[in-house]
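Today's session is about reading a structure prediction critically. Students often jump straight to the picture, but the first step is always the sequence itself: look for stretches that repeat, for charged clusters, for runs of hydrophobic residues. Only then move on to the predicted structure, which in these notes is written as discrete structure tokens rather than atom positions. Here is the chain we will use throughout the hour.
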Amino acid sequence: MSLIQDAVTPAPTPPQTPVLEARRLVKTFGRVVGLDGVSLQLHAGEVLAIIGDNGAGKSTLVKCLTGAYIPDEGTLLLDGQEVHFKRPQDARAAGIETVYQNLAVSPALDVAANLFLGRERRKPGIAGSLFRALDRSGMRKEARDEVQRLGISTLQDVSVAVENLSGGQRQAVAVARAAAFGSKVVVLDEPTAALGVRESNQVLELIGRLREQGVPVILISHNMPHVFQVADRIHIQRLGKRAATITPQSHSMTDAVAIMTGAAQA
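Below is the predicted structure for this chain, in token form.
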């Protein structure tokens, strides 16, 4: 009987390797401790929110994850393999794309040109190799395909200059660029901070589409309703340390604020 049971009992599912993992990161600035042994895990198809008061270490943590800072101590792993980012370009080359609060879009360029900013495609053959002519039609076609893939209904014409777009549309351009090239992770820094209710909802819907497509997202935000609307897990920073990792199901917004301010523990 035990042999039959052993034969039909499924093997335990091995734990999923995080797409991105940080182990006990430390970062100091002289006598100021930015990060004090912070660990973090991000899994495929997950939205992980990072919250905390000003000075809690949110920005320092994200910059260590994306190559803007080099940690003094600790380990960073991508798909289980240790990586060492010495600059943001290294993280981008590894598939980690970041959308900062200032967006870093070029208003004078059109949507397609902004999507390929810094990654411009040249025409095939002698026109591209010798005369360095850009493949504008090819980039616009790929930009349209990417916008449609993400379901961004607010960007109908990729040939429109970004300076003619609303704040929400500009945010969508920046997120679409990150999604197009962020094969591993997309990091969003306060994506709804300067947006109205309607445009914020459009960005939150876009985050949901990224998750549906299996792209893990790190969301840094002060907006608690937005965090609890889209996040699967919430990493709370306090005084340079990880105070807790909670979920919207296990804790309320009041609980999260209490942990964030030190009024309560997880």
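Discussion point for the tutorial: The first helix runs from residue 2 to 8.
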